[in-house]
Amino acid sequence: MRDRRLAALLRAIGDESLDRREFARRAVALGAAATTVAGLLAACRPVGDDVASAERATRDAAAALEPLGPIEPHLSIYNWSDYVAPDTIPNFEREFGVRVTYDVYESNEELLAKLLAGARGYDLVFPSSYALSVLVATGLAAPVHRAYLTNWGNVAPLFLNPAVDPGNAHSVPWQWGITGLAYRADKVAPPESWSVLQDVRYAGKMTQLDDGRDVIGSWLRFRGHSLNSRDVGELTAAKADAISAKRNLKAYLSAPVKGQLISGDVWIAQLWNGDATQARAEQPAIEYVLPREGSTIWADNVVIPRSAPHVRAAHEFMNYILRPEVGAAISDFTGYGTPNQQALARMEHPVPYPTAEQLRRLEYQIDLGRDTAEWDQLWTEIKSA
Ligand code: N2P
After folding, report:
1. What's the 299 CA to ligand 1 centre distance in angstroms?
2. What is the second-level CATH architecture of the domain 177-297+358-384?
3. Residues 6 or more apart in contact with residue 42 via CB below 8 angstroms
4. How far is the CA of 131 from the centre of ligand 1 (A)?
5. Rounded to whole angstroms, how far apart are CA atoms 382 and 384?
6. I want to staple 210 with a disulfide (CB 3.0 to 4.6 A). Which of 59, 139, 252, 321 is the partner?
7. pTM (2 decimals)?
8. 206-208 and 99-105: which strand pairing?
């Protein structure tokens, strides 16, 4: 039934009686996962759509040169958890006279689901590159008025002009990091391979991220494949490996696993490097490794949704975090890498860029387009196995 209704919606986009944003809203309302919706949209790109997005880009480029109104007294931020320094928000509120509402999420899928379902009210969100490309393609990311970013020159050249957002027309780089294994060095030897998650000796003491891209990606890498694979055979093997590891897992748990690593309830956790650094500050026995088969390197970005009510305050915040001392404080607290070259120079614990050897084992996730639905289905099957 749901599939029939989705198919009807898809036909409606095809004959242009429904626009893509309305399609996304209705499909999510029918219970389709956000990533599935993004995949369907990519798959059914109607004739003329490239023209439509080119027209939007031209309109946006012109709009980005227009002056913004005065700063609003509110700002609503929707960010990953534990991804800002404790004083970043209070200092901004005090200096700019803006009251900030701050909500958190744990995955790109959670963010995309909200925005594709038509959530309004957020002024700033923080997608990883592949999720940014979905927001740009669906027209959900607003153009950045660069004239308001007087600190833009602090961004390291490496982070300028990413393929997913040419010219940084809709985004400001935020933090970068990698996905690996955090472990309790007082309990286990350094886990060198993703296969440790299949080791029954640690059953009940291990977790993987609650994130289909990261879980399936780790098992693809384990067999020597790209973590962006669309090959049915490779994906089927990844599913089997994920399910065999799942028998040993305490849970699929993302950033909140830190508490359990600290308490010793969890000994090995698939985790992002900065969150592991944060946990280590409280429990020095927590170490971190990049498994030998390799993993994800990612860059997250600050984006203003097109429906944002406080666009000027959002720009002031973007410019604020580009200050060297503010950027340094954020990365010193989060444990992640900063794309701000002036901030890097001031950090107490700078996160160095991965070595050439590590980079050979690291891959960026890309938007899977029409194959997103296949991945979503696999993740659902793994979670319910
Ligand atoms: C911070 C989350 C890191 C973001 N808790 C992973 N892209």
Report:
1. 10
2. 3-Layer(aba) Sandwich (3.40)
3. 137, 367, 369, 370, 372
4. 13
5. 6
6. 252
7. 0.89
8. unpaired
The CB of 374 under 6 Å from ligand 1? The reply is: no
Specify the ligand 1 atom closest to the Cα of 300.
Answer: 7
Q: Is the CB of 83 under 6 A from ligand 1?
A: yes
Q: How far is the CA of 265 from the centre of ligand 1 (A)?
A: 22
Q: What angle do CA 158, 218, 213 make, to 5 degrees?
A: 70
Q: Residue 272 C-alpha to ligand 1 middle, in angstroms? A: 6
Measured by CA distance, the residue closest to atom 2 of ligand 1 is 80
Give the Cβ contact number of residue 170 at 10 Å.
26
Cα distances from 288 to residues 185, 186, 278, 362, in angstroms, run 9, 13, 11, 15
Per domain, the residue ranges of the chain are: 2-51, 67-176+299-351, 177-297+358-384
Phi and psi torsions of 347, nearest 5°: -75, 145
Per the rule left: phi > 0, alpha: psi between -120 and 50, beta: everything else, 348 is alpha
Place of tokens 């227009």: 66
User: Which atom of ligand 1 is nearest the CA belonging to 179?
Assistant: 6
Q: Whose CA is nearest to atom 6 of ligand 1?
A: 272
Superfamily of domain 67-176+299-351: Periplasmic binding protein-like II (3.40.190.10)
Q: 251 - beta bridge partners?
A: 207
